[in-house]
Amino acid sequence: MKNIVLIGFVFGVCLFHQTYAFCNHGDSISAQVSGSLLDFAKTHSGKSSYGNYMRGKKVGWDTDEIKLTRLNGAEVVVQVAESYFSALFGGNKTVVIDRTETFYSLEGNGDILSVKSSHIENGVKKSRELLLKNGSYFLVTTSQNRKSEKMVEKPRENLAMQIKLESWLKGNRNKGDVFECFSTVLEEDDFNVPTKYIYKGKKNVRGDGKDMIMHEVDQETHGALFYSILDNTGRLYSGRMGKIIEYRLESDEFAKKIDNNLVDLIQISAVALDRKLGDPAKVNSLKLSLVADEEFDIPQSHRQIVTKGNDGKLLLEIKRDFILKKGKALSGEDKKQLLSPTASLPSDNQKILDLANNIVGDASSSSEKASRIVRWVFANLEKTMAKNSDNALDVLDKKAGDCTEHTLLFVTLARAVGLPAREVGGVAYMAGEKSPKMAWHAWAEFHDGKQWITADPTWNQVLVDGTHIKFSEGSTDLKWLNILGGLELKVVDLQRE
Fold it and tell me: How far is residue 257's CA from residue 64's CA, in Å, rounded to a whole number?
């Protein structure tokens, strides 16, 4: 159940937490900015360090440095971002070390020329490099003994937009004003990620023995909100995500002092319940009172119904999944998208195709095909929180992982045999705990031509039990991060087998 939390944390570090927000505001920027780019680079050169905290305990650090350098004989500006993260996941220690170098031109709009990134998790390295060759961009990914290269779109992020952002922040802003741009995230299938800066107001901050006027801004990406305090240049002073994750500007020496008593993210992010539920596999239905610190649209379906009680609180009824008498087919566009291979879901890879067809054998119905894939993934993957992967081929190499690896492989194999499938996430009951709680979890849904059907390969379930509460659909639906640490659940009714 770990990786969904880690993804959120690392996502926040990589995407939101940048010393300066280099991004591109659509196609409306004038190219007549090259004369100011060098001045901008010189003015903003330097290094900033941040401590990363979970519920007040330090779990990692980030540094961001901007400096002038040379690339292929030309003077350019480079942003070097490094991070270190260490925590427990269900008692298993995980250490993540990231480094990204992004090179920007000092001509035109200051476009990205190259990106070099490395991700080391528990000693296993994966690197990605974005290269500009003969006017086209290529992404080269190296993971263990595998290397791939593909042509990709031009990054929409550039240096010129930082000047626009500074001007926007310094302007006569009103609450609710929005600045739209793009961030570059090589880990995504489409790494041009839309990002919004939503202005909230000015804030007086005491630091370095003086009062400073800062800007309160929500940075929104994939629905997740990162509350940030920025100076006039867009430089991050502090920020938080949900009620758990926090970033603080610190000296380099202090930022890199990590607590020896490691935080267990499964426990620290879990949602407490007021009573035990017993074996979750035997729960047919569960009715809960739900209170969230932030407004949150909970997905509704035939097995998940949200109503409002007499006291104004939300009532959430979860049922064991079941087959509908009448369903609804997917649109042609949705079906195509949910069958398409991606960088993380290479369902067109021959190794995946051969394995998927061998697993389903002579199964004719969608449900039987999915059931066979669930059973195979459950039986063949070691259950561990210490071997993470972001690609189904890597999962097959390791034959191990937690809920996200199980789900990633299931969705890929399902698509390979023609089953539209997607990852979903939320919380599910943690059996065997001293105190009752729901933990963040990932599972899958596949479409049988009439309806979405749930499948949890980590728990060997098709038609999941009545404790699986869905908060997200798809790997880029990150709105659930907004209620992380700010969710209260109380049992109203429980029906068991």
Answer: 17
Q: pLDDT tens, 188-206?
A: 777 888 999 999 999 998 8
Token pair recorded at residue 436:
């009752």
- The model carries a pTM of 0.89
155 and 222 share one domain: yes
Mean pLDDT of 119-128: 90
Looking at the fold, whether 73 and 143 belong to one and the same domain comes out as: yes
Which of 12-16, 100-104, 276-280, 467-471 shows the lowest per-residue confidence on average (mean pLDDT)? 12-16
> Can you tell me the mean pLDDT for 222-250?
92
Helix (H, G, I), strand (E, B) or coil at 144: coil
Question: Could you say which DSSP state residue 331 is in?
Answer: P
Question: DSSP labels for 398-443?
Answer: HTEESHHHHHHHHHHHHHHTT--EEEEEEEEE-TT-SS-EEEEEEE
Judgement on whether residues 62 and 81 belong to the same structural domain of the protein: yes
Q: Which residue has the higher pLDDT, 465 or 190?
A: 465
Do 259 and 274 lie in one domain? The reply is no
Domain extent, residue 83, equals: 3-265
Strand 382-383 to 400-401 pairing: parallel
Distance CA 108, CA 111 (A): 7
Strands 74-89 and 57-71: what pairing? antiparallel
Same domain, 164 and 120: yes
Q: Is residue 213 located within the same domain as residue 330? A: no
Q: What was the pLDDT predicted at 24?
A: 46
Instruction: Give the mean pLDDT of 37-60.
Output: 92
